[in-house]
Design brief:
The protein is 29% helix and 39% strand. The protein has 4 helices and 9 strands. A hairpin with a 2-residue loop joins strand 4 and strand 5.
């Protein structure tokens, strides 16, 4: 018997168009040829710019989250973004995560992130304490990979070419993450358009 989950794993993101996903797929292919099975790569069709991760959220709280996001987007216009240089996050053992940076109208993106954090704080979600670094995650090095091999992969990352792709961001999405044995899958639960002129309340 199917049961409805009481909690959903949620995050807020700006989705990207197909040509960006194709560009990311090209980058991932370059990296795969150099790192083999030592890295768990994302599926390019699931790429997105994460604005805020909410974690496990009670289903009954969904209406409050949606209302907060509706408030957060008010007054924010669509803006242009583009792929930037490739980068990495590390730990004590060396390279851990590889990503492609996001450039373009980042100030508007950052303003949108602040608005999302502020609106969600009202309904009980802690504002993000770490500085916002817009990026698209490419892959994570497997836990069992040694320090020397991580260093070799990091050198390969530095040689990877990122294609020049730009796109227009025109909405914010409330996303659900489902972790499976085949990786993470994402479902869009609701979208919130960015509009140049917000309609008057009636």
């Amino acid at each position: 018997m199917n049961t409805t989950p009481e909690h959903l794993r949620l995050f807020i993101a700006c989705e990207v168009p197909d040509d960006v996903k194709e560009g990311i797929s090209n980058v991932v292919d370059q990296l795969k040829s150099r790192s083999g099975a030592d890295v768990r790569y994302i599926r390019p069709d699931g790429v997105h710019v994460t604005l805020k991760f909410l974690g496990e959220v009670p289903v009954k709280k969904l209406p409050a989250v949606k209302l907060a996001l509706q408030e957060a987007v008010v007054g924010h216009q669509p803006f242009e973004l583009e792929l930037s240089t490739i980068g990495t996050f590390g730990g004590r053992e060396g390279l851990r995560i590889m990503w492609v940076g996001v450039a373009g109208d980042v100030l508007r993106l950052e303003a949108l992130v602040r608005a999302v954090n502020a609106a969600l704080a009202v309904v009980g979600f802690e504002p993000e304490r770490r500085p916002f670094r817009p990026h698209l995650t490419l892959g994570r090095v497997r836990d069992e990979v040694g320090t020397r091999r991580r260093a070799e992969i990091e050198v390969a990352v530095g040689k990877t070419v990122v294609p020049p792709v730009a796109w227009r961001t025109s909405q914010v999405s409330l996303m659900r993450s489902r972790i499976t044995s085949q990786g993470a899958f994402y479902d869009v639960l609701a979208t919130f358009p960015l509009r140049i002129n917000q309609p008057a309340n009636v």
